[in-house]
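Table S2 (text version). Query chain:
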Amino acid sequence: MLTISRVLEWFDQICRIPHTSGHEEELRSFIQKWAQGQGLKTRTDAAGNLLVIKPGRGCGAQSASVALQAHLDMVAEKNLGVPHNFLQDPIRTVRDGDWLRADQTTLGADNGAGVALMLTVLEDQEIEHPPLECLFTIDEETGLTGALQMDPELLSSRVLINLDSEETGVITIGCAGGVTGVLSRTLPSERVPPDYIVKRIWVRGLKGGHSGTDIHKRLGNSLVLLSRLWDAVSSGGDWRLQSFRGGDKHNAIPREAYLDAWAPAPAWEQVETHLANWQRTFAQELGDNGNSLEIKVTPASPELALGRNNSRLLGDFLLCLPHGVWTMSAQWSNLVETSSNLASVHTGWIDEEMQLRVLFSVRSDRRSLLEALLSRYASLGRLAGMKLDVRDGYPGWTPNPDSLLLQKACRVWQKLTGSEARVETVHAGLECGVLADKCPSLDMISIGPDIRGAHTPEERLHVPSLQLIGEYLVKLLRELC
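Corresponding structure-token output:
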């Protein structure tokens, strides 16, 4: 039977193999070779998604097949100064009571926990279950690429259990759609007055989080806070921006950011006297989420700089960009309907011109509101002379409260735990939305163990909940025989 020790052994094996988004080849090859060694059939499509097929056992030998699905890739985030190479180094896990975490990097429980559960089920020779199609998709975290490019013929099942949810006792039956965009332009440099000096202003120590499921939690966005800080600093004198950088992934709320700027020495002295006040103000706004916030000035290396007007233009543009909750759902209690994430700002210099790139993502359950918020970004970009490149759109997943699979899933949970499961939709992109678009007849749910701090180095996996979800999955497969 499925045991938590074996699930954790599989998870440990997954952690040893680098598998960040776009670099899942080694992990996929490992699973495929292992499955073939077990006598299981495997198939891949042109996108690189892997399907492992296992015949039914016991009461499910003659049943219709059921699909299990999880994605192979993980978000690569680490704390500042940590010398971890996600393309080469294994994830170093730490057991902390009932929780499993990594050593100052993302853990990859999203979605390694689901992959480990699937491998345990594929390996087990005692569980009774229908024929299984275990679908391992690639490149989910950067825009659901594997699912979007999946060959619909790869999957024949009409029932699918997704294992990418992050709260035990919740059965997810719907999700938001979304789109990612990039605003960009070049800005010319100007000569800096000879008596100016350059320094770096840091905003760091924020918790970060998932840009969908955590967008309403007042976690703080380092780019938003740094934009406010720059507005306060630059409004009182002749300041020149040299760089503005922070954030990385479209689906992660930025935890740290910095800017390099030129100003006369007395102006810098005045700024440094107010650092503690700014830090206290921002921390009070964030409550407990601001306990580790740090605002600091450090040395910077001289480079080119923008003129005063373009420095102000860039600051005004960043200050106006939307971030956070836009509308709440009228149908589902306490569910965010529409939101945006100011995900990253990167600047660099080529041929004495600043190359500016702003990455953002927009999510919504309603296509009309998603398009309206996207139009707001486009309008702000036009006012600032920027080019908009829209990419990585993905469909939402429309809830089906009359689902037969859902009814069975709720019944099994009640019998296993003595309590009713919560049935919800989520403000995040799940591959179920794409799969429903490709295979309209699929009946789907999404479940998973408790994961906290996904997409950040604070990511944790609750081991007892992983055990419970494993037991639940076994009993649900038995019910589907």
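Notes on Table S2: Residues 4-176+396-479 form a domain with the Aminopeptidase fold (CATH 3.40.630.10). The first strand starts at residue 41 and ends at 44.
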